[in-house]
UniProtKB/TrEMBL annotation:
Subcellular location, principal: membrane
Record bears the keyword Lipid biosynthesis: no
Membrane topology: Multi-pass membrane protein
Protein name (database record): DoxX-like family protein
Length: 122
């Protein structure tokens, strides 16, 4: 029973995370509001495109079970760095606290997904 619960938690947390990353990557390409928001934070335009491509890559790495755990670990690290960077950038920019709360919640979901993956591997 414990293993089935862990799998369920892993897939729910991973799906929530990858849906958010996919939505964010889409917005970086097609949403004027998000494109302008990245610029307002002081990041160059190439960084926005780079983040979108890396997020899409991370989504595939996390969702495809056959991809080796080492690649998934790097995807988790990259996503974690994204959230930390976003939290710092929004705090410095003095954006509403709600934006950082969202990033903190998704950072927590990232941690849950990773912990479950490690428990399922071990």
């Amino acid at each position: 029973m414990y293993l089935d619960d862990m799998k369920t938690i892993y897939w729910i947390s991973t799906l929530i995370l990858t849906i958010f990353l996919s939505w964010s990557a889409y917005g970086y390409f097609f949403s004027k509001t998000m494109i302008d928001g990245v610029k307002a934070l002081g990041f160059p335009d190439f960084f926005r495109i780079q983040l979108a491509v890396l997020k899409i890559t991370a989504v595939f790495i996390l969702l495809i079970p056959q991809i080796p755990i080492q690649y998934k670990e790097w995807a988790y690290v990259g996503i974690g760095l994204f959230f930390i960077t976003a939290i710092v950038a929004h705090a410095i920019h003095k954006d509403p606290l709600f934006i950082n709360l969202i990033n903190i919640v998704f950072f927590g979901i990232l941690i849950i997904s990773r912990i479950c993956l490690l428990k399922l591997q071990g």
